[in-house]
Write a structure and sequence with these properties.
The structure is a single chain. This protein is α/β, with parallel strands linked by helices. It folds into three domains: 2-117, Response regulator (Rossmann fold), CATH 3.40.50.2300; 120-253, Response regulator (Rossmann fold, 3-Layer(aba) Sandwich); 262-412, Reverse transcriptase/Diguanylate cyclase domain (Alpha-Beta Plaits), CATH 3.30.70. It is built from 15 helices and 18 strands. The chain has helices spanning 10-24, 34-43, 62-69, 83-92, 103-119, 131-143, 154-163, 181-189, 210-216, 229-254, 264-281, 295-302, 304-322, 345-361, 388-404; strands spanning 2-6, 27-31, 48-52, 74-78, 96-99, 123-127, 147-151, 167-173, 198-203, 221-224, 262-263, 285-292, 327-332, 335-341, 364-366, 369-371, 375-381, 410-412. The strands form four sheets. It has a six-stranded mixed sheet with strand order 11-13-14-12-17-18, with helices on both faces. α2 packs parallel to α3 and α7 packs parallel to α8.
Amino acid sequence: MRILVVEDSQVVSRVMRHLLTQELCCEVDVASDMASAKELLAHNEYFVAITDLNLPDAQEGEIVKFVLEKQIPCIVLTGSWDAEQRARLLQLGIVDYVFKENRFSYEYTAKLVKRLRRNQSVKVLVADDSVVSRKFIRSLLEQHLFQVIEADDGISALETLNDNPDITLLITDYNMPRLDGFGLIIKVRERLGREELAIIGLSSDSDESLSARFIKNGANDFLQKPFVHEEFHCRVLTTLDSLDMVTKLWEQANLDYLTNVFNRRYFFNFYQEKLTEVAQKQGSLSLALLDIDFFKKVNDTYGHDVGDEVLIEFASRLKQSFSQHFTVARIGGEEFVVGFKGLHIEKAYALIDRFRMQLEITPIETSKGALTITVSTGVTEFGHDETVDELLKRADTGLYEAKSAGRNLVSIAES
């Protein structure tokens, strides 16, 4: 990624270059005037341009129009605050207008560029029955490089969310036909938690209670229409930063630090609820407990770093094989578990045995060369009156039988 800084102050350009390379590990080109900027723009492609308004050879902000004509996102740095100029630049479609006050201004700019890079993969759903309002919000979001999807009411928004599970942010108006903003949020929150989807409510109504009602119903934030560009962008970015923080905390609590599959804590909590659900519906659920054969020998022979490489690749193969429909977790050490909700033991056995055979014939590449790894597994089925711990203990009995029979086997432990 390449960034252009157009700034005649050597101090400011040095600070921006340092912060950008530190924050993003990117290439930064610096131009001290418009002529130099044009030369660089003629020979390079830039992700974003950070420009001063007043340059030695362009005193009236001509560089901004030139950059925007090149379809390059533009962040304006300026030493003078002019309300009319600010409004004019925002109307042109710049990303942001930053007043050069102190180091925090430059840090904000660097973090904004980092956010822009991440925004390219962020999907935002805008639900509003007003075409004019939707298009306006869409234009603001696209200035910040978001992927934008539109819905004209709450029902359409729900359908869109079902079809696009990777949507990160929902921006919804209050007054909509068929299903209003409150009803939409309530239905969404029945399925998606705050670590999965952020929501911002909008309304042009003068009712002072709307903001509290939106947030109590599950929204992360609320914005009164009409709003200014900067307030909208600040609310969106703050909401997404908060979502990132919540998601990170959730991952730290529920994912294994090394292999990035679910951890023991998550598996126990998740499947204890699932067992109750399966028992009530008289459904089926099988569980496989896997243990890498002779893993201690791998650590003793090649070192723990190679052992970690084996664990990471083994977990990756488990995820690739099973995580789309089932649950993969690391129980501890070289032990992993796969929960097969909806499958009887015969089908679970067939899937795990196929995985075992594929693992045996596909060596794991490590920093010390290719290693052939095998796995022993115990498989069991839920008997409708057990805890997760009891189910795992019975699977462990099957695992012990597989190891006793020579390893590299799948053994069924009957309920």
